[in-house]
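Run 3'(2'),5-bisphosphonucleoside 3'(2')-phosphohydrolase through structure prediction, thanks.
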Amino acid sequence: MPTQRLTSPGRQVRSSSRSAPGFTPDVEGKARGKAGDAKAQERIAALLAERFPHDAVLSEEARDSAARLSADRVWIIDPLDGTREYSEDRADWAVHVALWTRGATPADAATDFPGELTAAAVAIPGEDVVLDTASVEVLPALADDAPIRLAVSRSRPPAITEAVREGLGAELVPMGSAGVKIAAVVRGQVEAYVHAGGQYQWDSAAPVAIARAAGLHTSRIDGSPLVYNEADPYLPDLVVCRPEIADRILSLIASHTATSGEDS
Ligand SMILES: Nc1ncnc2c1ncn2[C@@H]1O[C@H](COP(=O)(O)O)[C@@H](OP(=O)(O)O)[C@H]1O
Ligand SMILES: [Mg+2]
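Sure, done. The structure for 3'(2'),5-bisphosphonucleoside 3'(2')-phosphohydrolase is below.
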């Protein structure tokens, strides 16, 4: 397994460690989040421009360009996912870097999807953890009677949360950052992450690539594939979970959607 210091997700960073992992040790509150977003963007964009000057980039913190739709290689980055948690000096924030490659698999040419995520890294600096597609490990199979823990947004849990929690008999584990929640499934700290109601490609691309490399289930909440480098960066919902419970989760969401008329 890559470098990991196992701590509970979302733990509070002690104030004495305030200056250790962040990009902006000297600023507080919302200004800290804003400055962290800007500084992380600046550093990653500079590195990509230096090392891969011909590649396109889709970033939460940069103006989008239609050029990426015809590019062969597109970096999909979220320089600071969990800005709210970063600004609150918590540890549950992450840095996402994914590479999308045109014609990544022979099947791509025959489908509507011209490319796929081919490599990614997610850093959780507050926990001194980096996960990547090349070295991530596959967890042992989930026992039939294993307790299920469900990662959910600590600030805006989607409406489907309660239906899924109840149907699985799961314990809810609230935490910030899509990357930290997906990493928690990869790390065996929870068994599933379900999100609906809004998100963008950069929120999930890198951690989803790592989850796939670890053999986890990844899809939209209706079971359809998560597609990246689409013209519209909006990618509002997803399920990342241990493969053994994917069918149960998708059918709980489908029943909830059918009876409530909600899609989130
Ligand atoms: N309803 C929504 N609409 C748009 N983005 C959302 C969203 N819910 C969550 N997100 C984004 O998903 C990431 C994880 O959110 P959460 O911690 O609530 O699960 C955050 O990314 P950023 O911090 O990069 O903005 C947040 O902005
Ligand atoms: Mg984000």
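Confidence is low (pLDDT under 50) at residues 1-20.
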